[in-house]
Amino acid sequence: MTFASKLLNLIGFSEGLRVDLAMDLGTANTLIYVKGKGIIVNEPSVVAIDTRTNKPVAIGRTARQFLGRTPPHIRAERPLKDGVIADFDAAMTMVKGFLGKAFRPRFWLNPRIVIGVPSGITQVERRAVKDSAYQAGARHIFLVEEPMAAAMGAGLDVDMPVGNMVVDIGGGTTEVAIISLCATAYCESIRVAGDEMDEAILRYVQRNMHVEVTPELAEEIKIRIGCADRTGPEKKMPVTGKELGRGGPRTVEVTSNHVAEALEEPVDAILDTIRRALETAPPALLADVKERGLILSGGGALLSGLDQLIYRMTGIRAYMADDPLAAVVRGCGIALEDLPRWERIFVK
């Protein structure tokens, strides 16, 4: 504890100044929820660092614009991969920067933080998440598995004796879980999600149209005309990239049918995970899911036609959570608002 913190504790100001928060430290986006205030940070999980000084140049939306456009002495990167920290120092720098954006003035005592993590996270990866938060200034850290947080954020009664199914498709992982009484009856995490979809689109354009595009442009294609199947009306989008072989710029037309074909493999992997969950679920919980349907959350839930495809393949209705991108952090925020009540859901 710092001298300032000790002094403030002695004079009784610590509780008034402490700000507790919840965080969804995601592969694609980081969201921060402050107790009593709601979501106050929603930024891309990107940091740009000057390698000469090892100091941050930009974080979040500004840093995202640097990707693929930096001079040699600036490194712009996404420090999380597949839902976990790949570059510890960059992640710590990014978290510190987001905390700085969250609090103005920056005069606050070390907070308690609830963080959403993938259900398949290893002990080493879990320790990396905790260490980055401690280094960024946290006092106590509580981890919640993302499907549990997403279910809570979507408004499901996770503490009741009834089966709730959630499919959370983030940037790095897809989490499929059946939840009852604050516990997961079944949970599986696969590292196939939004980033894998972007990579599939990138490879498709390169292989079939002989044009190289950036991952950021592939993501834009997915957002604008992406779809899970080819049953809907066809959409089109002009895409400019580098022509393979010649090296000059070239513009091609990408359609929603092209994207659906490109996404067949990652979408099938997600559907297979949903099928395994339904095959494994106890009969009573399966009956609940059949009656109530399943909830889609995360950025991948926005993929057009995914809900209809799930229904055709499983017979289970799929409903999108309100504000699916924020479901995990809202669930973490619910836990933060009443820590004693939700103690059972925290990962030990």
Automatic annotation (TrEMBL):
Q: Where does the UniProt annotation locate this protein?
A: Cytoplasm
Q: Name one GO cellular component term.
A: cytoplasm
Q: Where does ATP bind?
A: T27, A28, N29, G171, G172, T173, E219, E220, I221, K222, G299, G300, A301, L302
Q: Record's Pfam families?
A: MreB_Mbl
- Gene3D superfamilies in the cross-refs: 3.30.420.40
Indicate yes or no for the key word Nucleotide-binding: yes
- The answer to whether UniProt assigns keyword Cytoplasm to this entry is yes
> Which Gene Ontology molecular-function terms are recorded?
ATP binding
What stretch or stretches form a coiled coil here?
A: none
Q: Which domain of life is it from?
A: Bacteria
Q: Name one GO biological process term.
A: cell morphogenesis
Family per UniProt? Belongs to the FtsA/MreB family.
This molecule's function is given as: Forms membrane-associated dynamic filaments that are essential for cell shape determination. Acts by regulating cell wall synthesis and cell elongation, and thus cell shape. A feedback loop between cell geometry and MreB localization may maintain elongated cell shape by targeting cell wall growth to regions of negative cell wall curvature.
What protein name applies here?
A: Cell shape-determining protein MreB
- Which organism encodes this protein? Desulfomonile tiedjei
Q: What is the lineage of its organism?
A: Bacteria, Pseudomonadati, Thermodesulfobacteriota, Desulfomonilia, Desulfomonilales
